[in-house]
Amino acid sequence: MDGKCYQLSDLPVRMFKSRCRNTAFCSRDAFAAPAQKMTENQTQPRKTSRSQMFSAKCRGQKGETAANSQFNPSLTDRPNSLQISTGREGGAVPHVKENIPHRSYSPLAYMKIYSTRRSRTAEVFGQFGGEHCQGPIGERESCTTNANCSTASSTVCSDSQFQCDSGTCIRKRLMCNGDLDCEDGSDEPYDCDPENKPCGTRVLDTNEQGRTAGYGINILGAGPRMNPFNNDYFNGRCDRLRNPNTEQNDRLPWNVGVLHYQTLVEETVSREIYENSHTLVRQMLKEMTSTIDVGLSFKFQPSEASLSKDSGSGGVSGDASIGFNKETVIKDMTEHTTSYTKNKSFMRVRGTVEMSTYRMRSRDLQVADEFLDHVKYLPLEYEKGIYFAFLEDYGTHYTKNGKSGGEYELVYVLNQDTIKKKHVTDRKIQECIKLGIEGGITAGDVTVRGHVKPDDCNTVTNPTTEESEGKAVVDKVMTSVKGGTLVTAVAMKTKVNKEGVLDLVTFQDWARSIASAPALIKSEPEPIYMLIPLEMPSANVRISNLKQAIADYVAEYSVCKCKPCHNGGTLTLLDGKCICLCSNLFEGMACQSFKGDNTVPPVERPPIAHEGNWSCWSSWSSCTNGKRTRTRSCNTDGVPGAPCRGDISSEEHC
């Protein structure tokens, strides 16, 4: 970018490619050469209402718009000094080291006046001691111009409809009924005296299960930051449902077709002890994989600036997810491998409280005005940076059917030397660490019963017994909590860290709080582009672009950009870093070292089948006879002759 503003046909958007090397560190925080200095001193834009948010912006057929957007970076007058606002507090891009080679820019697309955009890609992720390759894919820079801005056509309402100030169309019979059928409230003017309220004189509220229904899902694991639905819309109906937790009637939002309350309490203890951390992490990651096949590729942290400065992260997961999620446990175990390797084993306890199940309507879903504004903000000419930001805000999919409640997981790090010294069996450890919960939740009260633990469990679980009775079997307990309030989650973690086990009282306090802060614990996904109204101008173009964006998003953060592991190790990508998860017999960053070589006497190395790693898919071929194809190759770098399981090509109808 040269600091000038261009007409639509003149403004290039370019892609920057940076190689994230497997030595030293990765750089994806440089958008131009020479390296830029980036600071955190950003001016936060003034907060505006949803109805005002986009009123000052000039939208056009080819893309995005004018000044006063939350996307505006702060620019200095110096050519080598660039400040970028990520849209999230404390999220400024760090200073970039200057010894990374830069690739040249290549023309990609053309954007509208008033702003320029460009995006980049990672060719190789950090591996074998390299750093995490993270940072935003897209960058936006604002500019000024005297050129006229063409305005996109707006939705035209029919004669039987009322047009809200936001542009949304509702039926005229919904006006002045006491409900905010227009999200901006324009259907309920101040001089309106509602006479035909859907619920009459009764005042009914929705609950958290209804308010958070339909929350987004990111198939790579990150928690979406915003809900696409307007779950305060009732379409003039007063559908009521008895809430067993409060013994009161709740009003059901229009978007929720079915909501059932059914409390199920379940606890499971791993039947076997995991002999190393990699075996446990592999199992946990497989449980987190989406029903959509993306392999073991995960991106827990969003990297693109949010389209809304007011967005949070993972709001459906309840307050307790902050700092207590499973992703934190997994990253801790993979980044501090040496702490969990020597003479350590693992056992885990998982507990689930299922509160309700819901199913969204199959048609006429009411989405939020802010969601529609952000859809309209997407340029018609595809540019992956801003489309990635949209996906990280709302998810690649939304929840078509879901189950809400709470769940916790305790990972016990066991000291094998102490286990052998005290002759403790696996069965004994299981009996001591499990809570043994059974029961239910009714009228906001939790009724559970726990099993009776053996008398000598303190010597197994309590870390404070080290001085008086020798070192405890449990070295450490890692806790993840999803759902419930932050206060009760902290109490759970404190109790477990102090005594090594969870007690019934602490569990009950947490379970009671789930009703006010439920989490999405199971879901059936539906693509997010299915929520774009077909009557929206240029809807089909944006739907097609979002389909492309989801495919590009999965391809951008794919394990195909990693080198294969040795000796049958499982390859996974976690937040921009390739990690080899080794079997019990091998260790090292590439699983290259046989543990038996270090024993006395050395153990004979068993025959192990190496495995290659598939390269990324090629682009689709042109459509011929209603079909198109793509290919990939088997990467055997470091493991010559190793095979790859799967097909070398794929085809689809077109």
From TrEMBL:
Biased composition (Polar residues): 38-54, 66-86
InterPro entries associated with the record: LDL_receptor-like_sf (IPR036055), LDLR_class-A_CS (IPR023415), LDrepeatLR_classA_rpt (IPR002172), MAC_perforin (IPR001862), MACPF (IPR020864), MACPF_CS (IPR020863), TSP1_rpt (IPR000884), TSP1_rpt_sf (IPR036383)
Topology with respect to the bilayer: Multi-pass membrane protein
Locations listed in the record: Secreted; Target cell membrane
Top-rank lineage group of the source organism: Eukaryota
Job of this protein: Pore-forming component of the membrane attack complex (MAC), a multiprotein complex activated by the complement cascade, which inserts into a target cell membrane and forms a pore, leading to target cell membrane rupture and cell lysis. The MAC is initiated by proteolytic cleavage of C5 into complement C5b in response to the classical, alternative, lectin and GZMK complement pathways. The complement pathways consist in a cascade of proteins that leads to phagocytosis and breakdown of pathogens and signaling that strengthens the adaptive immune system.
GO CC annotations on file: extracellular region; membrane attack complex; other organism cell membrane
Residue span, MACPF domain: 195-561
Family: Belongs to the complement C6/C7/C8/C9 family.
Protein's UniProt keywords contain Endoplasmic reticulum: no
Chain residue ranges for the region called Disordered: 35-98
GO BP term (any one): complement activation, alternative pathway
Coiled coil: none
A UniProt-annotated Pfam family: Ldl_recept_a
Keywords, in A-Z order: Complement alternate pathway, Complement pathway, Cytolysis, Disulfide bond, EGF-like domain, Glycoprotein, Immunity, Innate immunity, Membrane, Membrane attack complex, Secreted, Target cell membrane, Target membrane, Transmembrane, Transmembrane beta strand
Protein name: Complement component C9
Disulfide bond residue pairs: 157-169, 164-182
NAD listed as a keyword: no
